[in-house]
Every structure is written in C-alpha cells, then in structure tokens.
Amino acid sequence: MKIDKINLVNFRNYSKCSLSLNDNMNIFVGDNAQGKTNMLEAITILALTKSHRVGNSPNIIMFDKKKSTISGNVKNNRVLSRLKIEITEDSKKLSINNTNIKKVADYISYLNVIVFTPDDLEIVKGSPNIRRNLLNIQLSQLSKDYLNVYNEYNKLLKTRNEYLKILFNNSIADTNYIDIITDKLIEKAIIIYQKRKEYIDLINININKFFEDISGDKNISVKYVPNIEFDDFEYETIRKKLKHTFKKNYLKELNYGMTIYGPHRDDFVFEYNGNDLKYYGSQGQQKLAILSFKLSEIAIFKDFCNSTPVLLLDDIFSELDIKKRNKLLKIISMYDIQSIITTTDLKNINKKYVENAFVFIVKNGNIDRK
User: Fold this and answer.
1) pLDDT tens profile 272-315
2) What CATH code would you report for 143-305?
3) Are 337 and 308 in contact (CB under 8 A)?
C-alpha cells in the first residue's frame, strides 16, 4: 500500500500543498513548528478519519477558513483509489473515487497506517484506555467486521448502562430486558476478546526480535490483561465465564449503574524479563518497546491485507542514538514499505538511506523537494 499523491487545502498551516511521494522512504526535514507533524497528521486523518493528536476538527481548519480538505491517491496491489475528506466545524464528508461514503467502517482500510510519535510513551505509562484505543484502531484497519462488532458492542453497552439505572430507580421495571441485552452484549464481547487476544499473540511473534535488533537487549513481550480471567479464549469458555460474572455481580452493577465487566475494561502490558515495563524499565526501553510493537504490526498487516501499511514516524531520530537510528532504517529498508519520517536534520543518518529517499524541506507551511 502506497500513497502516490497527497493534497492539502486549508489544513493547519498549509493553505495549499500538493506532493508526489516516493514508494519507499520519504523524509521531511525542518525546524520545530514548521508543519512536519501536520503532514503526518493529515495522512493519519486521511486513513483513519481522525487525528492521532489531541484536539478536535475546528483546530485542524486553517484560521479564518470554513473548510479543510485532505485528499490522496493510494495504490494497493495495482488498484488506485482516490480518498478525500472534507472537514468543516461540525462535519466530515468522506469519499472514495468521488463516491460519498456515509459509514466510517466502509471507508477505513483503503489506507492502512502505523504511526509512531514521541507521545507514544503514554502507551506504556498512560491509562488502559490509551492501549485499548491502539488495539481498536489497528484491528479496525484489519477488519471491517471488527469495527462493526465494536460499534455494536458500544451501543449495547450504552443501552445496558441506561437500563441498569432504570432498574435501580424503578423496582417494577422488566428485568427480562436486561437479560436479553446482556446476552447480546456477551455475543459481541466474545468476538472482541478473541480478536484482541489473537492480535497480541501475533505481536509477540516478532516484538522481541525487533527489540533485540535495535537495542541489543531482549526478553520483551506483551501480555493481554482482560478484567476477567479466562482459562482460554474459546467461544464457550468466554460465554460461560461472562454469564457467570454478570449474574454474580448483578447487584454490584445495579448499584454502580454501569457495566463494570467486559472488553471495554481491557488492558495489556509490556513485560521486560517478566516484569511490567511501566515500573521496571527505563524510558529508553519503554520507547523501544513501543517502536518494536509498531514494527511487529507490519507483518500482521501484510498477512491479513496482502499489503504493507504506510509507516509514519514522527521525530523518531531524536528518540534514538546514532547506532539505533541506522539499525531502525536498516529494518525499514528490508520491507517493501512506504515510510514517511520527520526530523529536524539529516545529520548522523547513513547516506545510503538518504540518497534513495525523497527529502522534503519544510518551512512555514511550505514544502520543497530537495
């Protein structure tokens, strides 16, 4: 999967920008606050319909403008698709090949991306919600079915929470309805649990290898941590355990007015030598673990989608010493993958990687090919 061209209109500090990209490595060079990260953000939005950064759509639109447009031509196994997103203060309009797309699930996966940013340290150190969000984004790109099931689960979860409040305040309300909703919720939860467990297992195939290749260290892994313990992740095992858990904790959930068990409370942890990396690892090790996690995703996308995703690396070189930088570039160059990298300078990067890349100079929202 490759982005052939990217076009921006009134996006953050870009009034108008049109670029042709290299099928392999693209390096955007410039001082801070010039627009490098904005370019990566635009590509992320084009792929996922939302930014990887904190903030809402109006902040994306250039000051004094009413609409921002991101479009791009994407090649996937010789099939060319034109993706376009128009963003206004209160809406997003999606289209593929000039045909309007109403459901996000029908849009996502035409452009798959893996994003690494300096803020990704929060994947290790932050709340479980950050880690669940990462799983949901990546699994949604891999499977439209997962995204549909996840959306249906959230609707059922909202309905169940609302009805728990009704039951708490009204003793004569129909309790049969909560059983019906719970059974439907369990069916969706089983699929989510199984897909997440499968994804984590696939990550663990390669994460230690990448961690060792870049750092020389090893014994890194990822552990899936649902808030319910399962003996295994077979359908019937999960179904029985969930039924038992909801029945046993009915009064507890009634008092809380919310569903306190299920995949919406999932987590996963990075382990280093069998210990939680959050507490037993340096910040450098934490960053490398996240980077290794992201690199491990490349093979998963290739197997599931029969194509590689676009790799977006924001200010990655400031996070690594010279030796690790070039080891990372060597790994990237081994794949038939398009990478888009931002950096403040090209110093200490092996010339053979720079010579084969498209290098873009970014200054005050203007981009020139070097």
Assistant:
1) 999 999 999 999 999 999 999 999 999 999 999 999 999 999 99
2) 1.20.1050.90
3) yes
